[in-house]
Amino acid sequence: MVVKKTTLKKYKSKRDFTKTPEPTGNNIKKSKDPIFVIHEHQARSHHFDFRLESEGVLKSWAIPKGPSTNPAEKHLAIQVEDHPYEYKSFEGVIPEGQYGAGPVIIWDSGTFKNLKDDSLSKCIENGSVAVWLKGKKLKGGYALIRTKFRENKDWLFFKMKDEKADIKTDIQKEKPKSVVSHKTIEDAGRAPLEKKVERKKK
Ligand code: MN
Description:
Blueprint: H1 9-13, E1 35-42, E2 46-54, E3 57-63, E4 75-84, E5 92-94, E6 102-114, H2 120-126, E7 128-135, E8 139-146, E9 154-159, H3 171-174, H4 185-201
């Protein structure tokens, strides 16, 4: 799939790749099924970033309250700039002074199926997305519905009613760790300090 050159302009303009360890967006995707990833990000304010692959990039939403397995919990999701496909593997600490400074972990990842007949990009354009997630934590149907607030930037993200819905589990509390490094967001934020302490001991 060819990545439109213009789509990552905003992503690139916000970042200094000589200073941040985040991906540059110059590599192209290889895997077959569309992927999703949820980053937990302790920036100035704590949030989760939900990203869905579409046309070679990751369409992205920042969700302050994060995901829930309970269909009754509909959480605000703010659409943000497209991220490069390689961002799916990014975990680390964005340095002080850089855009989004703070630790990032891969809270969940996997593949998804578009539940609608239209292409995902068309669904996003129409403001109504329904996907079946096959993640390590999140499973089943999830929806993103655009609201009319704040120039159409605000969406609602929620679990759809199906056999994977679960009103009893607090998934964020029960499964807080990165599916890659098994660090919590607190561990990820502390890591650089611990390294300095270790070095002093030697
Ligand atoms: Mn973020």
